[in-house]
Amino acid sequence: MRKSKTVNIIHRLLPVVLIFLSACFSMVRADDVIVVRDAWIPEAPPNARVIAGYMTIENRSSRKRTLTGATGDHFQKIELHRTELHGDIMKMVKQETLEIPSGGNVTLQPGSYHLMLIRPDSVPKEGDVVDLELQFDSGYTLSVNFIVRAATSGRIKR
Ligand SMILES: [Cu+2]
User: Fold this and answer.
1) Fewest Cβ atoms closer than 10 Å to its Cβ: which of 70, 99, 107, 139?
2) Distance 53 CA to ligand 1 centre (A)
3) How far is the CA of 88 from the centre of ligand 1 (A)?
4) CB 112 within 8 A of CB 156
5) pLDDT 10s digit of each residue in the chain, 158 long?
6) Element of type H or E holding 26
């Protein structure tokens, strides 16, 4: 009697467990197609109130992905910016989102898109690693380690 009860419970729970497991696997499948490379932060003066974050985001999925924001424990807030030339003046313009086309990639780099890390608890130094969470439109978050490099040597060479 006891045994069949246990079996019954397992039978009843099995579909739930399977649905849960397949949801987990499909989440992994859906989200492991975003790859971030060359994540770095140029070293800033110790009193800097904002610092920049750069990286290349690659989208290996079959549909476009949209970066909607980022968070980090040691910053008051993080915005997505784009440096634009207005006449003779370089301006940073806040962006709500950044689209990464299917099968393509977008590079955040000096003079273009960047993460603006606002009011750090303390300004990281060359060699430090800063952990940030990137948020995408699917609700997916990706943890990325940004390496702090000397500002002059940090540019990505092509
Ligand atoms: Cu900015």
Assistant:
1) 139
2) 9
3) 17
4) no
5) 555 666 666 566 666 655 555 555 545 455 468 999 999 999 999 999 999 999 999 999 888 999 999 999 999 999 999 999 999 999 999 999 999 999 999 999 999 999 999 999 999 999 999 999 999 998 889 999 999 999 875 444 44
6) helix 2-31
